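Tutorial sheet, problem 5. The two components below are modelled jointly, 656 residues in total.
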Amino acid sequence: MTLINGFQINTSLIDQLTLELEEIVVVFDHQLRGEHDAINELCGRIEEYRGKMLRPTLVLLSGLVVPGGCLNNGHRVAAAVVEMIHMATLVHDDVLDEAEVRRRGRTINGLHGNEMAVMLGDYLISNAFHLCSTLGKPWVSLELGLITNTLCEGELIQLFNRNNTKLDQETYMTIVEKKTASLIGASCRLGSLLSGAEEMDAGRLGRFGMKAGVAFQITDDVLDLTGEQDVVGKSVGRDLDKGKLTLPMILGLRNATPETRESIIRMIGSRDLVGLRGLLKEVGGVQEALVMASNLVSEAKGELEYLPESPAKDMLCTLADGILDRKF
Amino acid sequence: MTLINGFQINTSLIDQLTLELEEIVVVFDHQLRGEHDAINELCGRIEEYRGKMLRPTLVLLSGLVVPGGCLNNGHRVAAAVVEMIHMATLVHDDVLDEAEVRRRGRTINGLHGNEMAVMLGDYLISNAFHLCSTLGKPWVSLELGLITNTLCEGELIQLFNRNNTKLDQETYMTIVEKKTASLIGASCRLGSLLSGAEEMDAGRLGRFGMKAGVAFQITDDVLDLTGEQDVVGKSVGRDLDKGKLTLPMILGLRNATPETRESIIRMIGSRDLVGLRGLLKEVGGVQEALVMASNLVSEAKGELEYLPESPAKDMLCTLADGILDRKF
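Model answer (structure tokens):
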């Protein structure tokens, strides 16, 4: 293991990523740390929201995968920024969804009420933009500003369509591309650009992230419908509780006979998770959604075809495949 | 009335400000306008939150008041940005406070529920940062990012001190400086800097805004305690409802005999607005708070002493004096 300019080289990719992710957590925590103990303590609770650090990992791998790609401090900062934006959405999502269990811990909401969750989410968003501004690369702020606009649009369109059992696949895709895939795509795109990638390669990485992101949301929707709370580690059936129509429901409604369609709509109305599961498996909504996720993963990997072979490329493909094997 | 490069000159200051504020509303609305009708419609409702456009007015006046100060497009963009940030805080404040009446209209919350208010506030924050990034002046993003961090800190510290009848004047001042005065000070400071002000003059404008901002919050607190809902145009007694100790209460508790102090604490606990009003007037909490506001306004105007005389300077002083005459 050799450290040059603070970056580890000549070691395996996994080791490198592990070290980099640790550094990103340091940047993340340092940004939020201030003079007020109570705020510091509250921010300490955010760690409970931290999952697999998917988005920072994608920033790093996308920085490495492009020809001549090396990691620099910009990757660390951008990775901390996208993770901070993501966590802000999780914290505000708890206000939205009144979820009581997330990542096997109590939510900020559950601990401190809606108002604290709103303010903590705002604090994260604000710090994300501030941290981004410290990069001294205005184009990053501009791109991320557009992405967070898009993300909020996705959430708003989803809210407008609550309890809309006529939601079509096209609108569902718009919602998912905006609220989930946009930030994942941006993580990949920015990671590559911070390594000096050509626009063509940045576009490939961006599309890789977008497609993988949609697949990720589809499997998330399936898990929320069919998963067991103990395994998934957060509340299941939340989409149904909140009247969010997800892809398996949309496809199931489309496939079903008029009679079964009526039953599905009735079960959505009465929030009957167990009954809905059964019917959607029967009419093939779940299976068809998973096939679509699988196709998207193939398309995502196809975007990387013209990039040189490397351990980073292998790992991006492995991560994409992993979306289909998710149990949580 | 003459227009040169889109800016009106050789006309009275009021006319110039009126035209500029109209332009700022255009920038504001254009930034939020997108391809989704439902989002556009929701953003149309934000106008109900628009008040006196104090912060944009301060950006403009601060741009004019410094030696050689002229307005440029940067002022319009920055003014729209600070107004958007302010409106985001109002929208999220409705989640926080469950207020039912604001500016004589129904709140976003009342219309669409907590979740819509959270997402709309996020949409405003995101668009504010994005619009700021389009300025091409990274230092503005950096300064505003710090200010919004500070603003959130103020709101969080206030939340931590809910129902704390031992809240001291120093902590109250920290909260008010952070949550209210910081953005007002930044509006003045940025306005001057966008006109190419020297750092010394920008500092004066920033301190003018900070001091006027604290005075503004104090009179706001007094109005919430002593005002009539019909005149104030929004719910009164909201601070008490939410267990927010404000300056008249803090000063009243300090001035009171032990016996009266017990009564005040009891009335705060039972949310007895009418009883509390009476006692605080008796022990002088309200009057003393207003004297402090008056002193702050004098100090604020003192900051402008070394700036050349101009209609803009006169108007800044008039606005500061107006804080003390507020009835709404």
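Marking note: Confidence is low (pLDDT under 50) at residues 1-10, 97-104 of chain A. Full credit if you identified this.
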